[in-house]
Specification:
The mean pLDDT is 87. It is globular, with a radius of gyration of 15 Å. The chain has one domain. The chain is mostly beta strands. Helix content is 13%, strand content 46%.
Length: 103
């Protein structure tokens, strides 16, 4: 996952939640030894269109040093964040990350 100039690496665990694998859930664990401060995903639920797209709901937390913070009253960490993913090449991913770091 990119967040501007920093690329974060995660280990994922999950499973499908229906018989045709169109609904799924994933849990994220930080794979880097020292994750950067900022927002990170903890869980993700989604649906697959059986082609190249996913609709997702991501549960996020805020990393602050050694701690992870969520707040039910916070509009970002207190409720799932909606999004979508599509298939792309690694070069497209790198280009998008580079564009984010310029902003």
């Amino acid at each position: 996952m990119c967040g501007g100039p920093v690329t974060q690496h995660f280990t994922l665990h999950g499973n499908n939640t229906d018989d045709d694998a169109s609904h799924f859930r994933l849990s994220f664990a930080v794979a880097d030894s020292t994750p950067p401060d900022g927002l990170a995903p903890s869980h993700l639920r989604g649906t697959w269109n059986h082609k190249d797209s996913l609709k997702i709901e991501a549960e996020l937390y805020e990393r602050r040093g050694p701690g992870a913070v969520t707040n039910s009253a916070d509009p970002v960490t207190g409720q799932p964040q909606l999004g979508a993913l599509h298939r792309a090449s690694e070069s497209e991913f790198r280009a998008l990350c580079a564009a984010m770091s310029v902003r």
